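Tokens in:
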């Protein structure tokens, strides 16, 4: 930014309007005055003013007639802008340029901006506008497009610290490193704020600034209390955390300020853990950096990220809380619990790698399944138990990948990349489709055969399901699968009402070339359109893998309700026997109390 302004002066390409934006106390107004000096210096325009001529001295003293500073917070209306516009018409009294420095320019009203717009776009050649603001996003686009924008960044911690050391040396002030670090932190990137607090400390303690005294003056808690919090979290001592809060309240510290300190400490611990104790990344002294490096070894990166997230949320809550102590205690107790959390990846890995579990037993039996070619996740319409079919090829690949120690998420991503889309499942050669009736595939146990229709996507679902005795339901396992697949596809086709109607049918009768569905005698059959009939024919043909026609008949309401109940009970029992559900109940020591519908 400095180089750009110097080159503009050196090359004579001076703009008529500038916007200086940035946070408070980073030098926007000061740079505007320096620019005015460079433009009006008797030796100029030159990039560096002499500072000795009358013009430079008057600008530095704030009494130059041709450098006019305006506070937009109190002169923000259309009348003030009209007065400024009239004043800009007159030539400079003595200097080369008439410079208008408008501070807090975002306070100008929309009407005021409109009054200034034309003058800002085409000002007289002797006029330069400099608009300083902390909230440039409130500027109209019409103003932004007519000015050169310079964004002032926050000053680095190391630069503020070095500047404070230089000021103390010039003022003969003896300041401990801890005191200067506390003063530099308090500015939060603003050199003006840090200098203001330095003056406050000098007024309070004279020429000898000690670290604990300055920190107490600024409202910052001692570093020992911060370290006590992390030691208590590491030792799982909740009562020590409550004692820390009690001490903060008794000694009059602001809990919100202490939480801000905790956020910074957690951030520094995470930085040390990730990148090491690099001074350019840490806002601390050399001694504090050593202590941070030692403490960071006791925590993992995952735990430190959790701590930082909890503390950031707590910091936001404390700013609006009417009971800050309760929020602080609750937030610190959450840090202890966060230390004991287990990642879902680790839990999944335990479920998959634990020997002798039903999951491993099922995986060992997968290669024996005959009519299954790939793994296809499926869900039953109306019921929430998700089932997956075994995949011998995928299982073989998973065993070969065991040495790579892939996480469950990485294995799932690899499986999705290798598994073809739904259209690939329907690509079956005509020779694989039997002419009449379904074939029979052995289940992993080998005891209960399951009828399988070649060319049906739903075959993959039925093959992995545990066998259901005939007494559990009036429908065979394969017919249940066909029914559920048709209902699921109806929902995908945005036909939930039709799917709901068919799910309450009193019976589905599967023939060679015709599927008969008996609906309840409630008159809804008359509402079905020809398009609905054609859609059912298409879905049934796709599911069975052969040309079939759906015929809708009227049936008995009580029979339909009984059929729907039987279907729901059968699916729930199948879900409860799923090896994943069984292992889930075993790990957590609790039984699944409810099987929830997919649309609930």
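Residues out:
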């Amino acid at each position: 930014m400095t180089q750009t302004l110097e080159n503009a002066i050196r090359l004579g390409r001076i703009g008529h309007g500038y916007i200086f934006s940035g946070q408070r106390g980073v030098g926007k107004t000061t740079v505007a005055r320096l620019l005015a000096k460079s433009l009006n210096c008797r030796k100029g325009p030159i990039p560096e003013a002499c500072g000795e001529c009358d013009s430079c001295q008057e600008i530095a003293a704030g009494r130059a007639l041709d450098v006019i500073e305006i506070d937009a917070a109190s002169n923000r209306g259309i009348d003030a802008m009209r007065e400024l516009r009239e004043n800009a018409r007159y030539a400079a009294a003595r200097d080369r340029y008439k410079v208008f420095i408008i501070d807090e320019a975002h306070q100008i009203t929309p009407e005021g901006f409109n009054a200034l717009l034309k003058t800002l776009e085409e000002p007289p050649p002797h006029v330069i506008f400099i608009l300083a603001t902390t909230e440039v996003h409130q500027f109209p686009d019409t103003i932004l497009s007519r000015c050169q924008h310079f964004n002032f960044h926050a000053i680095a911690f190391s630069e503020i610290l070095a500047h404070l050391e230089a000021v103390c040396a010039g003022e003969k002030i003896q300041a401990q490193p801890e005191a200067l670090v506390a003063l530099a932190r308090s500015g939060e990137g603003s050199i003006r704020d840090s200098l203001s607090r330095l003056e406050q400390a000098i007024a309070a303690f004279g020429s000898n600034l000690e670290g604990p005294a300055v920190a107490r003056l600024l409202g910052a808690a001692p570093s020992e209390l911060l370290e006590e919090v992390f030691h208590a979290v590491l030792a799982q001592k909740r009562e020590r955390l409550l004692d820390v809060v009690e001490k903060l309240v008794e000694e009059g510290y602001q809990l919100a300020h202490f939480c801000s300190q905790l956020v910074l400490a957690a951030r520094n611990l995470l930085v040390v853990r990730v990148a090491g104790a690099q001074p350019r990344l840490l806002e601390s002294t050399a001694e504090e950096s050593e202590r941070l490096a030692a403490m960071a070894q006791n925590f993992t990166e995952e735990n430190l990220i959790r701590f930082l997230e909890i503390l950031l949320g707590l910091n936001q809550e404390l700013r609006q809380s009417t009971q800050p102590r309760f929020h602080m205690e609750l937030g610190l107790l959450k840090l202890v619990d966060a230390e004991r959390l287990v990642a879902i990846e680790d839990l999944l890995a335990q479920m998959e790698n634990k020997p002798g579990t039903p999951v491993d037993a099922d995986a060992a039996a997968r290669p024996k399944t005959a009519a299954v070619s790939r793994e296809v996740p499926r869900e039953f319409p109306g019921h929430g138990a998700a089932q997956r079919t075994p995949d011998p090829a995928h299982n073989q690949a998973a065993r070969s990948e065991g040495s790579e120690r892939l996480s469950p998420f990485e294995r799932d991503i690899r499986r999705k990349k290798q598994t073809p889309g739904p259209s690939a499942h329907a690509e079956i050669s005509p020779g694989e489709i039997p002419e009449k009736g379904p074939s029979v595939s052995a289940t992993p146990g080998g005891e209960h055969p399951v009828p399988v229709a070649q060319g049906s996507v739903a075959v993959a679902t039925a093959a992995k399901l545990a066998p259901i005795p005939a007494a559990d339901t009036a429908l065979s396992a394969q017919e249940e699968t066909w029914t559920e697949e048709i209902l699921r596809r109806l929902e995908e086709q945005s036909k939930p009402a039709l799917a709901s109607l068919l799910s309450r049918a009193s019976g589905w009768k599967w023939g060679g070339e015709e599927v008969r569905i008996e609906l309840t005698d409630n008159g809804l059959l008359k509402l079905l359109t020809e398009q609905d009939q054609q859609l059912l024919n298409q879905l049934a043909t796709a599911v069975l893998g052969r040309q079939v026609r759906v015929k809708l008949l009227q049936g008995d309401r009580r029979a339909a309700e009984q059929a729907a109940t039987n279907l729901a009970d059968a699916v729930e029992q199948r879900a409860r026997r799923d090896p994943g559900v069984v292992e889930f109940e075993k790990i957590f020591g609790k039984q699944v109390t409810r099987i929830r519908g997919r649309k609930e």
